[in-house]
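Record pair follows.
FIRST:
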Amino acid sequence: MLEAKIKCPYCGHNETKVVDKRETNELVTTRRRRECLKCGKRFTTYERVEDIDLVVVKKDGRREEFDRDKIRRGLLRACEKRPVSVEQIDKILDKVESQLRVLKDKEVKSSVIGDKIMKELKRLDQIAYIRFASVYRSFADVTDFQKELKDLIKKT
């Protein structure tokens, strides 16, 4: 299969072929392994359905567009120096985004999104979960950390 729309990131050539294609579990993202027809190097591209038209209602009542990249940056920060791959982070994002797609209302509270992310992080990595929770829940002091840790220990 030839494709002229994807440039090789190594040599800039316009013709590549797809050597492998995989769907994610939530069918939100298609992963394609490509090979440049000029230099022969391989690289990966991801195809996602266009972002959802969703408005996030913040704690203070402000409204802003749903921003997948903003959530991804927060997850990357929480998972920094942890044994969590970028693919695992993207799976969390895909799962949460697919859950948001089925909502009837096009406005969702930031707390709903945060709770969904925290639920997935808790299963994946407890340290990343605590890091994310500390920002998401705006921990004021060590007491907040202790309370969250006690709750986490009780549930595991």
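SECOND:
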Amino acid sequence: MARLRAGEKIALVSDAGTPLISDPGYKLVREAVDENIAVYAAPGASASLAALVSAGLPTDRFLFAGFLPSRRSARRQSLREVVAVPASLVFYESARRLAGSLGDMAEVLGPRPAAVARELTKLYEEIRRGPLDELAAHYAATGAPKGEVVIVVGAPCKESGEVDIDSMLRDALAEMSLRDAAATVSEASGQPRRKVYARALELSKGRGKDGSG
């Protein structure tokens, strides 16, 4: 920052695609902007956009969600927060966590079409497409692939009507209190909290009677 204030020109260059996408470099930009120092971008390769345009899924609306948490409970919570987003979802993921993340996506987001892209623009580029549950089963059986991974997931199907509240609630109730589950699902689905809480109460009573989820 001192060198920038002195009038020098500094370039931030990355050998892993466009800088500042899911990395802490934005702090440098923020400090420069706060001091009225001009910042210019010269876009390079972007794994998120390369995966999106190659996936064969709608590109008119999309949400870049970055990396999911490594812990399963936190990861599923993050997925519940985007379950009702009416857009394609783009995630970065570690290859060793790929099968687990795809499995959680299949359970939380449902049987949506998806694509797993790895090593984009490189010699061993590969894109595998299919429903989330099939992709999860494939990588669980074959093991972690090599290279950098991007996951693209299709938006909720418009023809399916309302979001499956019961499925979201069952998943949430398995990990949190009734009140917290209702609040989380209400926020994620856009449904009234009172309505969601009442349904959560019904499901909770049902679980108590037969012990099933």
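COMMENT: The two ends are 56 Å apart (CA to CA).
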